[in-house]
Structure formats: structure tokens, C-alpha cells
């Protein structure tokens, strides 16, 4: 059972505004994680940072994202999406402002950890809220826009960082971290007034508040009996807790979400590192101009998401993720030829990987939100995010070692192997959620409410 007024609603201005507001979190994630890399150039000199301290500053946000996703997801399921939706943005504003006045490495490390916690918290908060308001036939595309915003945020960080470095000079790094506070405040203003998720409200038995939220947001009055029926379904699954993510069918789904997310993001970091070397041939050399090259890399990956955004709601999630992983492995295998490859082949492989990676990328937040019930939806999203960040951190740490000890060719072949693991996991465990309501896609096989609403839904 679901709330038909939401599931069957055409896209409205409310949905577009909510998507923009929810996308603000991933945008800030891409921005704040990238701007510190630009700022480290000036920060290292002003604060006399050692190599170890620079590494800790770069890693502290990833560690914070791990704990933010793991801890704040369950809290979001307990106290609500709307309450957490603005609180985590306030932390980003305050943390960025305080960073401007830091005068020691440990302060930057601590503040980056706090910012990472807020970013990690926003993933399950914003994605679950959007998933629970999105019409069924548009849900995959709307959730995919959020990851697209990450790449746009990363590109913006490099462009803005380049402009600040060119215009400010000495002490530019403080203006760079201050820019994060300004952008966070703007996103916070956009989010003010966002209504609570009706599904979360009925899950807690607050049907009157759910009815009011729907009327205010989309102008429809849902009959009380329909809300009570939805509440009965939701509350039948309200006993699920964090431990249930590691039992039975939900264990398989947890492993699937965490593994495919990790297999997608780990090789991507290798291409992010390999990419600037390619762009040197176009005159985008090291130094401040190299930031424009990094911005271009982010935009190439963003463009790769665009075809997948159209396909996930048209041909389905399962074929998109399976074929994407298979095709992603091909350019990595070719790059296994190493530095001897012609430049044109290297560039073509880079672009092909970026294009094919769009499938798993736009599904990073769709699957965790669609495969788990309301009572643990944000928890599942947080766990998937945390597991992926372990892979990202390990990949970031091991990549330079692999490039030095094994060479670029072998490193790319290892990336191809990781990608093929993602393909195997997807073939074995990817479920089709296209055309299904959240109640249908998140239910256990055999549950009455997990059956397809009509013949157009694809069987699992």
C-alpha cells in the first residue's frame, strides 16, 4: 500500500524545488571535498604543514563522512527527515566559518572531520526525503540528479579556487574555505520550509500531519482511509532496526548496495588521479591552471551521468547497472597497456569510462532508498555511504603505492578487476525497481504489499 496522491502525481514546481534543495547537499560535498585540495597549496605554507598533516587533512573529511552516514542515518529514521534536513546544513555553515580562523593543523583536521560528519549525514537525510516525495515514474531520475550535483560542486570548487588564487594572492586559502560557508548558507535558505516526509509521518502514526503536509506541498487532499491503510502497511514494517540490515533478504540488499557502490567509486578515484596527467597535453599544466583541468575532469564525469538519468526510468535499473559495469571494464582493460599507449587511445578510454560509469553513479542513492522500508531507509543509505567511503579511502591510499610499485598499466587492470566484481554483484543481486512504489520495492518477497501494482512493473 502506498500514498497514490504522491506516487501518481505529475512533476510540479514543488518537486523541482525539493530536488534543487536536496541536491544542495551533494553539491556541497563535491565542493567542500575539492576546495580543500586547492586551498592546501597556500595553507601548507601559512601553517607550516608537514606531509603527514596534509594527508590527515585530506583524509579527515572521508573519515567524518563514514561516521556521519553510519550514525546519522538511524537518527534520521528515528526523529524525522525534516528536523535533520536543516541541522546538518547549519553545521556546514558554522564549520566553514570557523575554518577561516584556524591557525594550526589540528584545528583544520578537526573541522574537516566535523564537516565530513555533516556531509555524511546529509546523504541519507536528503535522499530519503526526496525518494519519499518523488512520483514513482520519475523517482530514479530525480535521485540521479543528486549525484550529478556532486560533480558540478567539484567543478565549481576548482573554478572558484582558481579565481580566488588569481585575484587574492597571499592568504587566498582562507577565502576559499570561507566560500564554502556562503554556499552552505544559500542551500540552507533554499531548504527552509521543506515539509516532512508523509511516509515517515504515517510510519509514526501521525496521519493528520501527513495529510496536512500533502495538502500544503502538492495541493491534494488524501482521504483519511487511504492514509490509514498506508499507515497500517508502514507500521507493519516499523519494527525494523539497524540490526535487520544484516539479516535475510535485507542482508543481501545491504551487501549489494555497499559492494556495487564501492566497486564503482574505487576505480573512479584512480581515473581522477590519472586524468590530470592526460590534460597536461592540452596545456593545462601543474599549478593554479591545473585547477581548470581538474574542473574539466569533473564535468566529463558529470556528462557521463546524463544518458543514465534518462535510462533508469525508461529501461530499468537492473539492465542499466549490469551493462554499465560491463562496459566500464573495457576502457580500463585497454588502459592496462600502460604509458606506451597512444595519447588518443588514452583520452578515448578516459572519456568512455566516464560515459559508462554514469549508470552505477546515478543509482548510488536510488537503490538504497528503494530496497528498504521507511523505518530503516535512511539507515540503509547511511550504511551504503559509509561502506563506499572505506573503499574510497583505501583506494586513495593505495593508488600512489600501486602507481609507483606496479605501474599505471597494472593499476588500471586492478581497477578493471574491481569493476568486474561490481558486474558480478549486480548480475547476482540487482533487483528491478522501475515502476514500483516504495512499498512494493522495499517489501520482502511474498509480502502482499511487495507485489507489483500493475502488469507494467518488472518482476524481481
Give an account of the 3D structure.
- Mean pLDDT is 82; it is low at 451-460.
- Helix 2 (13-46) packs antiparallel against helix 3, helix 2 (13-46) packs parallel to helix 6 (139-168) and helix 4 (81-99) runs antiparallel to helix 5 (105-133).
- With 460 residues, this protein is an all-alpha fold.
- It is 76% helix and 0% strand.
- The two termini are 18 Å apart.
- The chain contains 19 helices and no strands.
- The protein has a single domain, classed as MFS general substrate transporter like domains (Growth Hormone, Chain: A, Up-down Bundle).
- It has helices spanning 4-7, 13-46, 51-79, 81-99, 105-133, 139-168, 172-191, 198-203, 207-218, 224-236, 248-279, 290-311, 317-335, 343-356, 358-362, 366-370, 377-405, 408-429, 438-442.
Helix content: over 70%
Q: What is the total tally of β strands?
A: 0
Q: Helical segment tally?
A: 19
Q: Considering the protein shown, what is the CATH homologous superfamily?
A: MFS general substrate transporter like domains
Kindly give the count of domains. 1
CATH topology: Growth Hormone, Chain: A
- Return Rg in Å: 22 Å
CATH class: Mainly Alpha
Q: How would you classify the helix and strand content by structural class?
A: mainly alpha
SSE arrangement, N to C: HHHHHHHHHHHHHHHHHHH
Q: In percent, how much strand structure appears in the residues?
A: under 5%
Would you identify the regions where 5 or more consecutive residues have pLDDT less than 50? 451-460
At CATH's second level, what is the architecture?
A: Up-down Bundle
- Output mean pLDDT: 82
Give the biggest beta sheet: none
Q: Which of globular, elongated, flat, extended, rod-shaped describes the shape?
A: globular
Measured distance between first and last alpha carbons = 18 Å
